[in-house]
Amino acid sequence: MKPFIGINCDLSREWPCRLSLYCEYYEAVKMAGGIPILLAPLEEVKDIEGLLNRLDGLILSGGDDVWPERYGQTRHARTNLVSKERDAFDFQLVRQALDMDIPVLGICHGIQLINVVMGGTLIQDIPSQRPSDAPHNSKAVHKVKVERGTHLYEFLKTDVLTVNSIHHQAIDRLGEGLKVSATAEDGIVEAIEGTRRSLIMGVQWHPERMLEDSTQRRLFTAFLEEVKGRVPKRA
Ligand SMILES: [Mn+2]
User: Fold this and answer.
1) Which of 29, 83, 218, 226 is the most buried (most CB within 10 A)?
2) Alpha-carbon Rg of the chain, whole angstroms?
3) How far is the CA of 195 from the centre of ligand 1 (A)?
């Protein structure tokens, strides 16, 4: 039985109202041996719990920015908010997934979401608040250094990795129970993970857009292997 991997989607209330997800996310899950389940926003805590009970793992997709009220800040002029409904669902989904010990892999907005749910803060706009020579926004490519002794290193088996970079926000103060597993040369956090037994990982880049790269594919295949190994422990 292949594991069920939930993927949250983007929601736009502008007409015509729509849920959307770039196809690379579900293709990455299928490539890695899982069954992708696209998640529509739910409001009721018990409904989200019921949904998570049927999932084996969670991939948090990219998107616009987390609401800064979530980490006690006011909105920077360049912060582009996700819809309020997506934000509310994302938070409840991640909180409950962590409580239920369901493996989570967060991508771009997803790594930022994990950090904020766990009490961390974000740099709202890298170019104006943390300028450096290394561009992170749109079409940029840069290297990241992977920390040894992390799940990320175990998955990828490399100290240095070339990644795409399509973000203007990044992790500032790290949330509780998290550690940094990769950084860019300018010190921007590019990957995090949980310090406890639960499998919680986040990457700032978009591995699903680099599936032609065998190292990037391993992020998904190794995540799925971990998920498969953990399913009986939850049952
Ligand atoms: Mn970057």
Assistant:
1) 29
2) 16
3) 23
**109 in catalytic set:** no
**5 within 8 A of 208, measured Cβ to Cβ:** no
Q: Which of 9, 24, 108, 193 is catalytic?
A: 108
How many domains in the chain? 1
Cβ–Cβ under 8 Å, residues 224 and 32: yes
Distance in Å, CA 142 to ligand 1 centroid: 7
Domain assignment present for 140? no
Whether pLDDT at 104 is above 80: yes
Which CATH number goes with the domain that contains 70? 3.40.50.880
- The question of whether 176 is a catalytic residue gets the answer no
> Using one digit for the tens of pLDDT, what is the confidence trace for 127-142?
999 988 788 987 789 9
For residue 17, give both structure tokens. Answer: 């109202």
Taking only the tens place, the pLDDT of each residue in 41-57 is: 999 999 999 999 999 99
- C-alpha distances (whole Å) from 188 to each of 7, 13, 183 are 26, 33, 6
Q: Is this structure's pTM higher than 0.85?
A: yes
Task: Let me know if 206 is a catalytic residue.
Answer: yes
Q: Residue 232: its pLDDT value, please? A: 56
Domain that holds residue 16: 4-120+191-234
